[in-house]
Design brief:
With 120 residues, the chain is mainly alpha-helical. It contains five helices and no strands. Helix content is 82%, strand content 0%. Belongs to the drug/metabolite transporter (DMT) superfamily. Small multidrug resistance (SMR) (TC 2.A.7.1) family.
């Protein structure tokens, strides 16, 4: 299960890298930047595919999108000097609360049940 969460973390980090590269491209351009952006986003989907083999797809996708949005917003504030309104900050806070609630509500099957279904 730890490997699945590692894949999900890699999916989030490569998504954030790809989107950040996209932002840089709008400022500086260049064909190499596009290649990096496409590679990061494609790799993100590959890692997400590995993660959903052990993590419920709804939970994995919510974490991937939610944490990705939070990290991209943080990078936008720190690196790209973006400014957020109070409403946007509240919305981002709600995203984080939603992620915590989804993750806390995930039901983990006992190991015996997982082994039994894996044998089929």
């Amino acid at each position: 299960m730890l490997l699945a969460w590692t894949f999900l973390l890699l999916a989030i980090l490569t998504e954030v890298s790809g989107v950040s590269t996209m932002n840089l491209l709008s400022q500086e351009g260049g064909p190499l930047g596009y290649l990096v952006m496409y590679a990061c986003i494609a790799l993100s989907y590959v890692f997400l595919g590995f993660a959903v083999k052990r993590i419920a797809v709804g939970v994995a996708f919510a974490m991937w999108e939610g944490v990705g949005i939070a990290l991209i917003t943080a990078l936008s504030l720190l690196v790209f000097d973006s400014v957020l309104s109070t409403q946007e900050l509240v919305g981002l806070g709600l995203v984080v609360v939603g992620i915590v609630m989804i993750n806390a509500g995930e039901v983990h099957a006992p190991a015996a049940v997982e082994e039994h279904t894996a044998c089929r």
